[in-house]
Amino acid sequence: MAKAFKNGSRGITGSLHSAERKLLRELFGDIIHMLEERAEVHRLPDDIDPLYALTGIRPAELALPPIKDAALARLLPDASDDKEIADEHRRLTEADLISEKLGRLREAQFLLETDKIVLDPAGAQRFAQALNDVRLVLAQRLDIRDEADSERIAQMVDAKDVTSPEEYLALVYNLVSWVQDTLMFALMDAEN
Amino acid sequence: MPDVLSSPQARVVPEKAWRLIVWNDPVNLMSYVSYVFRSYFGFSQQRADTLMMQVHNDGSCTVRSGSREAIESDVQAMHNFGLQATMTQED
User: Fold this and answer.
1) For the complex shown, is ipTM > 0.85?
2) Which of these, A95, A110, A178, B80, could form a disulfide with A42 (CB 3.0-4.6 Å)?
3) Residue A176: domain span
4) A14: three-class secondary structure by DSSP
5) Sign of the Cα pseudo-torsion (A139, A4, A29, B72, in order)
6) Residues of B with Cβ-Cβ distance to A191 under 8 angstroms
7) Which chain A residue's Cα is nearest to B57?
8) CA of A8: how far to CAs of A84, A142, A190, B31, in Å?
9) Which InterPro entries match (chain A) (predicted)?
10) Taking a C-beta distance cutoff of 8 angstroms, is the pair A58, A91 a contact?
């Protein structure tokens, strides 16, 4: 069983069991894969105006394809109810958002190579952000839409009760939520 | 009288402010949302908690307002944290 994150003299520390680490690394890997696929659509054509190629800015006439996967849409949401504003914001910022998320997810995957995790506050924040991305994707797969769904899922805490893949996913979601929550309290303690 | 354009009226219409709205969702932990408000905006714990509860109870909350550029970068930062955030211009 995972140990809660704590703030202490050596920094913010916590530990996870090898099975939990393996599972989390796979989850980080799934999201990395989703984001890498989306990053492909940001590639600018080879024959583009060199000024765009140089700056990496996407010209307005090169529209991005819409996101069809709801979980990916949750990671890369619209910036406005106004479609024109949302599309422009996406065209100019989505590639950066993807690469920042990828960086944190890869770092988190690497952190889980060892059972004991030691973090400074900045590293703890990035780890929390990566865990949060995992929870956003799992919540979409579990169809958590409101507080009632969230409470129903929260009941699933004992591996003995698991009888279906959905219940297993709920158990995983609750584990990641618990790890993230203890990390936030350790981080607040470290910064006070 | 040379045929030139008349000098433009020195009248600047101030752009209406943009607002950053953070939306409630059943996924983001209260501890996490409060932390994001403190660390990114530099709010006190009390102010961060008040805003977090407002998002939670009212469904959304205007966290701050400012120029389009400032709010655009806030929205991007919130998305980086995984919070549901949008920008809108005041009427």
Assistant:
1) yes
2) A95
3) 3-191
4) strand
5) positive
6) 38-39
7) A147
8) 48, 35, 8, 19
9) AosR
10) yes
DSSP state, residue A115: S
Identify the structural domains of chain B with CATH numbers, from first to last.
Answer: 27-89 (3.30.1390)
Q: pLDDT tens, position by position, for chain A (192 residues)? A: 678 999 999 999 999 999 999 999 999 999 999 999 999 999 888 888 888 777 777 888 888 899 999 999 999 999 999 999 999 999 999 999 999 999 999 999 999 998 899 999 999 999 999 999 999 999 999 999 998 999 999 888 888 888 898 899 999 999 999 999 999 999 999 987
Cβ–Cβ under 8 Å, residues B27 and A150: yes
Give me the residues paired with residue B19 across strands. Answer: B65, B88
* CA terminus-to-terminus distance, chain B: 43
Residues A148 and A88: their CA atoms lie apart, in Å, by 35
Task: Return the number of other C-beta atoms located less than 10 Å from residue A131's C-beta.
Answer: 26
- Distance from B12 to chain A by nearest Cα, in Å? 23
Nearest alpha-carbon partner for A180 in A129, A112, A142 = A129
Q: Do B26 and A96 touch (CB under 8 A)?
A: no
Reference A125, options A174, A191, A59; nearest CA is A191
Position A108: which residue type? Answer: A
What does residue A5 show for φ and ψ, rounded to 5 degrees?
Answer: -70, 140
Inter-chain residue contact A128 with B32, CB threshold 8 Å = yes
Q: Which two tokens stand for residue A59?
A: 């010209």
Cα dist from A53 to A63, A70, A86, A109, whole Å: 16, 30, 23, 31
Among A147, A124, A121, A150, which residue's Cα sits nearest to residue A135?
A150
